[in-house]
Structures
1.
Amino acid sequence: MKHARPDYQRIQDPAANAALLKAFDDAMNLVAHGPERGLNHEHSRVLSSLCRALHPTLGELVRNPVTSPIDDDEPVFVLRGKDKHAPDTIRKWAEFVYRRGNGNRDMSSMAMDHADAMERWQRDHGCKEPDLPEQPQNQPQMAL
């Protein structure tokens, strides 16, 4: 998933990945201090290769953890690039943020840029009306 805000790239509580982040941090430290801790050359090479492959994603999370993660019960609404209404919806949101949110130009600008990126993606990949998965016969549709 690609998100407009890098600090929300993962829409989940970082605590859910705490064990993975701890293991990655421990592995990075072991690679840095392996020979003095008795790590043999072959193991050091393999661990170093794995750390380099994971670093672009996990390294950023270890250095800069999200300071206010999304709570497990916090409602989140995601607009996908293939949703033909998503770019205009994001632009309207950016307008609200700017006009009603004390003129937060940076946040509005970032949202507008993301709406433009969505439109470019739509030109290359297509877009469609949003839809819902098929509902089982005995389950009622949500009323608006």
Note: The chain has a mean pLDDT of 77.
2.
Amino acid sequence: MNTIQTQGNSDTGEKSQAVLFLSMGNGSVPLGAGGEPLAIQEQRILGYRKAGTLDARVVQEFVEIGVSARDYRKRALLLAMLTYLGEHPHVRYVIFPSLGRFSRSHADFVALQRRFKKLGVDVFCATGDIIVGVNETDAFMAQLIAAAQSI
């Protein structure tokens, strides 16, 4: 169940604009209201809260369920989001639920980081700091720290 949801009119210019990328690798989890996984609902709440701290308005959501974060080229919704960002240069931020749902491999991390930088988009974790927007060494260190904490 992978979906793209548009949130209102994306042409108004009051606030900076953000995109949420809600993602979970395991498709068999408890469901909440509307049959959507509770984890996705929680990620949405945290994502909107993060957008608020950035003074940004969420204009699009990409919801990915049951897809590994190991190879971004096999993540259809992530590729769709990259295309969307290329077509909507007014979007300043992308918010992922966690570093682990951004990327699980160093090569993909660096490749994605470069793509987002080329698009001029800052990438944040919903519960943490910036992923892309800092130099590659700092971002890679953030990935290493997150990986060490999950052990």
Note: The two ends are 29 Å apart (CA to CA).
3.
Amino acid sequence: MTQAETGFGMPSPDDQHTVTAVERVVQAGQRVADALLRTRLAEQDLLEAANDLDAIAKRLGDGALDHEAIVKELLTWRRPPEHDPAAGRRNMMAPPLRLVGDGPNTMVGEVTLGYLYQGPPGHVHGGISAMILDHALGVCNGYSGHAGVTGTLSMRYRRLTPLDVPLTVRAECIDVDGRKIRTVGRIEYQGETCVRGRTVHPAEGHPARVMRLRQRTELLEHAAGRRLLPPAIREHPERYPRNSFPAVSSPAGCPKFALLSRRRRRTLLSP
């Protein structure tokens, strides 16, 4: 998987980004959330503000897609992943983090975390640091051509991470060993490491797993007597999580499946 296929980050630090209308709405929402942390308005004024926000939410929701439709578009690569809580351009929770390539297997980015992300007074919540690194390491894997979801995330907090200052996020895919991808990263402030992270990702694109997914797809579709999956998943099953595939409690009605050995059946139906 290339960096472009991950849907995250820009290919070059020299690229200029123009703020879109959606991003302006997101930024306004973040300012509202920040102001709410600090406001001293009376209760009646807060109720009036809530009514105004309800009207805005209703306006934004008119004609909006439901979440199931969005998930289907994401699974078939027809929609960029703008939902992500670490980097999604449509997600008000996202700081957002922007990552760029810094070599064939490394990425670097910058993020400023405001008081919405506060844990210890004046410092970033440890769970937010974990989310930022989990995201950065996963995107780095996709950028380096080794897609996979997080299997294990290990964190080491070396010092408190300050709020409201530019932080540097670094990620590097260091090893691909069979079905395991090992990636490391860190969050820095002024060259000093605040948090380190390490992940082990199951290799989604491992040839044995790809073949098993293709065989499972073929068997389940044969059992159903029809095509169950869209072409994008059928062509590249390794790119999609297991829950993208149809749940079949017993494919015993498939003659081809019945001819397989018990061990082979278990292999095909395993994650």
Note: Residues 1-13, 246-255 have pLDDT under 50 and may be disordered.
